Amino acid sequence: VGMTSSDVLDTGLALQLKASVKLLRSELDKLAEAIRVQARAHKNTVMIGRSHAIHGEPITFGFKLAGWLAETERNIKRLKRLQKAVSVGQISGAMGNYANTEPQIEERACELLGLRPDPASTQVISRDRHADYVQTLALVGT
Question: Using one digit for the tens of pLDDT, what is the confidence trace for 80-91?
Fold first, then answer.
């Protein structure tokens, strides 16, 4: 009667994912600022450009860094979106149908944990959220 193991495990995992995204965002914010500072400092530092792994036309190191900064800023936006996507908990029972609990209990518990209930309650939190997390990390890591 009441909670099931998936309620505890999935909600706990959501807290871990949320915390890891927060940490990654913090570190990427620092990285973006460091790249921004160096891009400005090297806006006139000439270097060899590369095209298809061979020397190309000259560019500046600041120009190269500006490209990395744009990518880092896109990754920060991805993580902001991901923060919301993974911040989902549940306390809806073995079938997700609130047979032994009230939705208000789930809402309050999630609120206290800084999560929100999944709008479509089932036995487990939908795994597409976890796939989204892994896919986003893959993009951030490239």
Answer: 999 999 999 999
